[in-house]
TrEMBL record:
It comes from the Bacteria. This is 3-oxoacyl-ACP reductase. SMART domains: PKS_KR (SM00822). Residues 7-187 form the Ketoreductase domain. It holds the Pfam family adh_short. It comes from Reyranella soli. GO terms for biological process: monocarboxylic acid metabolic process. GO terms for molecular function: oxidoreductase activity. Gene3D superfamilies: NAD(P)-binding Rossmann-like Domain. Transmembrane segments: none annotated. InterPro entries: KR_dom, NAD(P)-bd_dom_sf, Sc_DH/Rdtase_CS, SDR, SDR_fam.
Length: 242
């Protein structure tokens, strides 16, 4: 419980699924947690209440993380409520699922903004404080679609591949400041997003969908390991290998 005591974490898209599991794991390790959401305010507040029920500190914070002004306001609000952000989990994402020949420019732009631009905006917003304190952990939630065909579409693949490139780019430039930047690439985790594109786990060698809590275990490992940076950890039940 005390491993992250005194640390403040921000989880984007933290109201449900993988984000929810990560937020709760961070709180269990002693961190104060800001649970970001876009429209699921009740779900985000439920995560906060679950953390409070365990004796932890948490707040919910609504913001569109694809917008620079919203991100700036979000980070300022978290700092007022909990303190400077030490741990950033870039988990917010969307999956616009439609036939490839029906994809529009707006579909592409929105996917890039939410899945990729948000990582840049949130990272830039917390970076000065992390550098000043010479300690920081950034974990980006990617997808097996960054390297495989995926079940959503090329716009989604591209956004996640870009996220992993951004992970390496930041990692190389921040390691001397005590900041690590890594990614987790889950495939077919039991969430609302996966439920919309995959009805069966039959093609997964393990024989089942992954659990959000299994993703949070990897995230916690990356936060605790200061020697590991610029890496992407795959989590697929044997479906694919990096």
């Amino acid at each position: 419980m005390a491993a992250l005591k005194g640390r403040v974490a921000l989880v984007t898209g933290g109201s449900r699924g993988i984000g929810r599991a990560i937020a709760i794991s961070l709180a269990e390790a002693g961190a104060a947690v800001a649970v970001n959401y876009l429209s699921k305010s009740a779900e985000a507040q439920a995560v906060v209440e679950a953390i409070h029920g365990q004796g932890g500190r948490a707040v919910s914070v609504g913001a569109d993380v694809s917008q620079a002004a919203a991100v700036k306001g979000m980070v300022a609000g978290v700092e007022r409520e909990l303190g400077p952000v030490d741990i950033l989990i870039n988990n917010a994402g969307i999956a616009i699922n439609r036939p490839v020949d029906e994809l529009t420019e707006d579909d592409f732009d929105r996917t890039m903004a939410v899945n990729l631009k948000s990582v840049f905006l949130c990272t830039q917003a917390v970076l000065p404080g992390m550098r000043k304190r010479r300690w920081g952990r950034i974990v980006n939630i990617s997808s097996g679609a960054a390297r495989g065909a995926g079940g959503v579409g090329p716009h989604y693949n591209t956004s996640k591949a870009g996220m992993e490139g951004m992970t390496r780019g930041y990692a190389a430039r921040l390691v001397k400041d005590g900041i690590t930047v890594n990614a987790v690439a889950p495939s077919l985790i039991q969430t609302d997003m996966v439920g919309a594109v995959a009805s069966s786990a039959s093609r997964i060698p393990l024989g089942r969908f992954g659990k959000p809590e299994e993703c949070s275990l990897i995230v916690m490992m990356l936060i605790e390991n200061e020697y590991m940076t610029g890496q992407t950890v795959a989590l697929s039940g044997g479906l694919s290998f990096l």
